[in-house]
Amino acid sequence: PAATSPAAIDNAIAMAVESSRVSSVVLTAQRSTDEVKRERQNLANNRKQQQKQEDAPRRRLEDQQNGDNNNNQDGSNVAYVHMTPNILAGILYTIMFIVVTQIGIGCMGSIQGQGDIYVKKMPTIGREA
Question: Which of 8, 66, 81, 111 has a CA 20 to 30 Å removed from the CA of 38?
């Protein structure tokens, strides 16, 4: 029962373990309802906190010098940025690609051929000039 002292429980377990008539001892316990509710609430709060951190629009930029990625995990000397260098490089490359493609398509559209010149009689061979 709940009123039993921990010392009495420890003595009973020690006697059962040392007894030659007992081959094995299995200890079990049942958690109280309040403890289970607190544990569930803590798990839910941890999930919410983790979800908030994952939903943050900023990314962690760790210090890359000497391989010291702040291994002490205390959060000091860590900068949170909205854009990493790889993302910035991707955006700049995309903008450059779009500009070059637009210029190329514009220049190709201004190329003219001889489709606008119509003659009634073609010159004889050897007298084109």
Answer: 8
